[in-house]
Amino acid sequence: MFEFPLPDPEEIPFTTAYDFDLSIDGNGDPQIAVVVGVTGEEPYSIITGISVTTGYIFTAAFLLSSTDKGNEGS
Predict the structure, then answer these.
(1) Residue 26 covered by a domain
(2) 41: which of 50, 54, 58, 59 lies 20 to 30 Å off by Cα?
(3) Which residues span the domain enclosing 28?
(4) CB-based burial of residue 41 (10 Å sphere; 0-12 exposed, 13-18 middle, 19+ buried)?
């Protein structure tokens, strides 16, 4: 994806590539399911390719949640 010299990991921009809403589960706890990846060239775009070198995809799925109704420290 990057040519040498490779950028520092902190310099690689990541995005969800879209806006999303917060959901509340049956227990009243907040849940956000989102795919995060390297930012593409267009607004709200994400690179979804697969590395020809490693076979890894450039995205990952995350579930951000709370078990304490979103209170601090949960």
Answers:
(1) yes
(2) 54
(3) 9-45+57-65
(4) exposed
